[in-house]
Amino acid sequence: MQSETVRRRRWLDDQQFLDMVGATNLIPGPNATEMALYLGLVRAGWAGYLASGILFIIPGTLATLALAWVYITYGSLPQVGWVLYGIKPVVIAIVAQALWDLGRKGVKGVLTAAVGVGVMAFYFLGINEIALLFTGAAAVLLIRGGRRLWKRGATALLAAPGLKLALPLLAGAAVPFSQATLFLSMLKIGAVLYGSGYVLLAFFNSEFVVRLGWLTHQQLLDAIAVGQVTPGPVATSATFIGYLMGGWSSALLATLAFFLPSFFFVALLSRILPWLRKKWWSEAFLDGVNVASLGLMVGVTWQLGRSGITDWYTIVLAVAALVLVFRFKVNSSWLILGGAALGVGYKLLVA
What we know:
The chain is an all-alpha fold. The chain has 13 helices and no strands.
């Protein structure tokens, strides 16, 4: 986006672009989609706002629908299982690399590190991921605010809030599928998602694997893999999940529900940004949300790794992918294609 809108087309300068990045990070939802919406608004008003948002989502959605159809139609065949066998450990490596990069930016001292570790620990105990996000944000916000008051000579409590706001995530019997539940679940996730698209791992796992029982860990990993290998935002994994649940209509419904809050939030942000831009508390809140997101991502990556890395060959694939992604910065799409080919090759040799 920066290359296209700043360097090539000169619609705005670097500082304006950076301000926009920071602003979209302050609101929930998939950041890449929100950047597209904001750029369209700046360039061509509300017509550009709608056009840029819709056109940014369409290519990934169509590609994901095609792969979802292939997955459902041929997913039970051994050959397709061979492809996924090689892809899954590679996806874990890709997510690990994203975690490392995000962690270097998101962990800004002892406070944020402690919040991240705490969120990860409570996630493993089954605490609701939405409550953990906002509790982590509140912890950083209140402690930094307390420090500011202390420096000014005021009396302030420096203790972070406890996790009393975090509601236990109740896991029970599988809930029967309905499109209304799918719509509301995707709408909820789209309205509270903070950080990288990979944070979806935590939200989708909590909602569709644990709470509703509609997906397995294997299917969730496949959904993230498809979102990664197709163009557009990783969040088109929502399209894939919808298709698994109820075909084309559910796929489109899930996509609509997931991205709908972003259209609202960016419109709202465009009105309040001048007031919000220089507030210290918005930076503290964002730091807390980001580090809480990292804790959630680590927890779910561990869970998915146990599903996707199951024998010596997948361990080798995962280690090789880690080397390629960390040392040589190989594009993730090439890694996934390579993992698919190696998975098929290995299964042909041992078959």
